[in-house]
Each structure stands twice: as structure tokens, then as C-alpha cells.
Design a protein that fits this description.
The termini are far apart. With 80 residues, the protein is of the alpha+beta class. The protein contains two helices and six strands.
């Protein structure tokens, strides 16, 4: 069974996993995304994820390239 067409294979990664109870888990993720800080094109798997909570207790997240992560780390947003 083909899950992605050839056009979509260039844009997305597909991971298929069979769970112990027999269900099949399918993860579809983009191959590249734009950095939230500088809009550079970054590999999705290599992007750095930053998660924060707003004043209204709404959880937000964004992915950054290495150079933007370094700037955020200098400002104290990353602990590690």
C-alpha cells in the first residue's frame, strides 16, 4: 500500500511503527521547515524545539536553527 505520492515523498518523511497491541502508528513530518527566528530553511529533524507558556497559560512551541538557538541561549531561554 502506497501512502505517499512521489511529489509528497520529496516534502514529507513517513514513519510507520507497529505497536505491541497490533495497532499501526503512522508519523508524518515535513522534511524542511522555516526557522521561527530568521526564516531560514532548516531540516525538521535537526531543528531545535523551544516550548513556553504564555501569560494566559497557553502552551506554545517553535523550532529554531542553530544560530537562533545560540542567541536564545545567550538570552537565557535554554537551560541545556
Amino acid at each position: 500500500m502506497q501512502l505517499l505520492t512521489d511529489d509528497l515523498k520529496d516534502k514529507y518523511d513517513l514513519e510507520k511503527e507497529t505497536l505491541p497491541d497490533g495497532r499501526i502508528k503512522i508519523m508524518l513530518s515535513p522534511k524542511h521547515i522555516n526557522c521561527h527566528g530568521c526564516s531560514a530553511k532548516v531540516e525538521f529533524a535537526g531543528a531545535n524545539l523551544l516550548v513556553w507558556t504564555d501569560k494566559d497559560n497557553y502552551k506554545r512551541e517553535a523550532r529554531f536553527c542553530r544560530s537562533c538557538k545560540f542567541e536564545l541561549k545567550e538570552m537565557g531561554y535554554f537551560n541545556g
